[in-house]
Specification:
alpha/beta; Rossmann fold; 4-stranded parallel beta sheet; about 45% helix; binds iron/sulfur cluster
């Protein structure tokens, strides 16, 4: 047998080839499963779609299948990369809904390929100018917003005093710190009221790297996550708690796959930590929150929250669908109603496409808010600063928007 011949499926070389970009773009059966919800899951025509990119741009090139076609044409030399083509590859929220639909019948990784096509854009010099600006800011300031990093914890309430070192570290993340400080304030007040002693990284906290990873700047993301891990290891922390699902997946899946610095701590989303505090009797709800709400599953805390195991269907950590709902239902006076597309079939808020495509972002957020309003809820709640930020910009006063931490704070 030739040294380079690919052997049986148990062969390591075969497993490396399988799920690679070259394999997936050929293995895609062009079945279109990634474009819509399954018929038996559709509850109304209005909320029957699943791909924000296809919904907004309407061309097949903007579906997952279309992107597999583009990938195949690129690697076989039938198509050359252009700025227009690169733009179309970035007109996608990387929400992973197509990936969920694909995996209900195929053993493959279209979302991984869509992101890797962006690495190719960057390598060939076709990264978008809007992204280059925030990547530079990440390198120079430690955050994508060009804000001074020493102001990262300027929102800290006076009554909350983080320690220089503790077993628990609260990682605020860039979006929460600079765009939605009300979430940061509510989160630390919840920890404080449960008597949790925690530390923060202060101006040493840098972006987790997720925004760079999503746009194909994997090396920048790797540098960011490794820097953070090194500092948290030095602090001797046992648990890292973050209220941002993007940071949560960066410290978990991304770090596990790419970081050369090994984590010496566990990583939890605030929802997991709050759930344990409630179970241990350290956090009690004493006030009623008389509100009818609907819960939006963030992609990164839902279907993207756990690495996929080949041969399985359900994506994400099932705890992340149940815990926020369980906590909300236990708040006195609060009524939880469900939207049509939930859990792994949740419709994306628009994520971070607003850097380059603000109209696409606005349409996507508004569509999700329409679904929330159709439930009769007075408020949409979620547990992600990006979702909350997008919804607050899109809501136009038609529905209230809260992070779950803000709802908990009201109930303390
Ligand atoms: S990406 Fe998956 S679901 Fe979409 S056409 Fe290809 S095989 Fe089918
Ligand atoms: S990741 Fe989301 S927006 Fe992108 S192609 Fe898939 S479903 Fe559409």
């Amino acid at each position: 047998m030739s040294e380079f011949r690919v052997g049986l499926p148990s062969d390591k070389r075969w497993m490396e080839y399988k799920y690679s970009l070259a394999w997936v773009v050929q293995a895609c059966s062009r079945c279109s499963n990634c474009k819509h919800l399954h018929g038996w899951r559709i509850k109304s025509h209005r909320f029957s779609t699943i791909c924000p990119s296809l919904d907004y741009y309407l061309f097949d090139s903007h579906s997952s299948q279309g992107r597999m076609d583009i990938g195949l044409a690129l690697i076989s030399g039938k198509l050359k990369m252009t700025q227009k083509l690169a733009e179309s590859l970035y007109q996608c929220t990387l929400c992973g809904a197509c990936d969920v639909m694909c995996k209900t019948q195929n053993d493959m990784e279209p979302l991984k390929v869509i992101r890797e096509l962006r690495e190719i854009c960057v390598d060939l010099g076709f990264g978008l100018p809007q992204h280059k600006a925030f990547i530079e800011s990440m390198k120079n300031y430690g955050n994508p917003f060009g804000k001074p990093n020493e102001k990262r914890f300027a929102w800290m309430p006076k009554e909350v005093e983080p320690l220089p070192k503790a077993d628990v570290v609260y990682f605020v993340g860039c979006t929460t710190a600079y765009l939605r400080p009300e979430i940061a304030r509510a989160s630390v007040k919840v920890l404080n009221s449960a008597g949790v002693k925690f530390a923060v990284l202060g101006s040493e906290e840098y972006c987790c790297g997720k925004p760079a990873y999503k746009q194909g700047y994997t090396e920048v993301a790797k540098e960011m996550i490794e820097r953070n891990i090194r500092i948290i290891n030095e602090m001797g922390a046992k648990v890292l708690v973050t209220s941002c699902p993007g940071c949560y997946t960066s410290f978990n899946e991304f770090a596990d796959d790419y970081s050369d610095v090994k984590k010496e701590f566990e990583v939890l989303h605030l929802s997991h930590f709050v759930d344990s505090l409630i179970d241990e009797g350290k956090l009690k709800f004493t006030k009623s929150v008389n509100l009818k709400v609907t819960y939006h599953d963030p992609c990164e805390l839902g279907r993207l929250s756990k690495k996929w195991t080949p041969g399985t269907e359900v994506l994400g950590d099932p705890r992340n669908y149940e815990i926020p709902r369980k906590i909300l239902k236990s708040i006195p006076g609060l009524e939880l109603v469900e939207m049509e597309r939930i859990k792994e079939y949740s419709y994306c808020c628009g994520s971070d496409v607003g850097w380059a495509f603000p109209d696409f972002l606005m349409r996507t957020s508004r569509h999700r808010l329409e679904e929330a309003r159709a439930t009769g809820a007075e408020a949409i709640v979620s547990w992600c600063p990006t979702c909350i930020n997008n919804f607050k910009h899109a809501a136009r006063g038609r529905i209230r928007v809260y992070d779950v931490a803000e709802i908990i704070e009201k109930a303390l």
